[in-house]
Amino acid sequence: MQTATPVQRKVTRPRADALRNRERIVTAAREMFVELGPDVPLDDIARRAGVGNATVYRNFPDRDALVREVVCSVMDRTGEAAKRALAETGDAFEALERFVHASADERISALCPMVASTFDKHHPDLEAARERVEQLVEELMDRARAAGQLRTDVGVGDLMVAVAQLSRPPAGTGCLSHDRFVHRHLQLFLDGLRAPARSTLPGTAATMGDLRGGCAT
């Protein structure tokens, strides 16, 4: 009696062009959310991405799905910047500085109005992305503290909220002129993080959890 040969199921993988279209949509959405805010029409995003409206809705059935993907994308890119900084073997504080400037270039300030929209802020993808970023940045800061270069009374929340506040606001053409000041002001902030501290900060070090009551990054 012969044993039936198991049927090999073919795993369906997204086509390369479909993956490229999805990435173009996310990139265009991220750019337009920063420039115009989270309520920009999806049709405009499709035009910026160079795809049809149907392609946008095939990848993202509603605005919440696209906004969530953009937020996760920004956090993932921020996490990659932290990984690159952690891979450096030189000065720990300089690595932290490079991470902060790279984070500002991701325009994480644009996350606040997006996270404040209607989608589920506790979606597993968002929670996972937040935890990855928090862990990587904490490790980066711990390394600078261990080297005696970072003041001990600041937390991840202090760092990330400053990056968000000092980077360009997410919407309004009048804000574009502020771009040239972002890295200048960030460097002033970073100089204030160096140890030994020249002052005593009021309150306690902010964590990412402290920020989730309002704007979560």
From TrEMBL:
InterPro entries with a match to the protein in the record: Homeodomain-like_sf (IPR009057), HTH-type_TetR-like_transc_reg (IPR050109), HTH_TetR (IPR001647), Tet_transcr_reg_TetR-rel_C_sf (IPR036271), TetR_SbtR-like_C (IPR049445)
Native source species: Streptomyces luteolifulvus
Name of the protein in its database record: TetR/AcrR family transcriptional regulator
SUPFAM superfamilies the record matches: Homeodomain-like (SSF46689), Tetracyclin repressor-like, C-terminal domain (SSF48498)
Lineage: Bacteria, Bacillati, Actinomycetota, Actinomycetes, Kitasatosporales
Limits of the HTH tetR-type domain: 19-78
PANTHER family documented for this protein: HTH-TYPE TRANSCRIPTIONAL REGULATOR BETI, HTH-TYPE TRANSCRIPTIONAL REGULATOR RUTR
GO molecular function, one term: DNA-binding transcription factor activity
DNA-binding region: 41-60
Entries under Pfam families matching the protein: TetR_C_43, TetR_N
Lineage: superkingdom: Bacteria
Keywords in alphabetical order: DNA-binding, Transcription, Transcription regulation
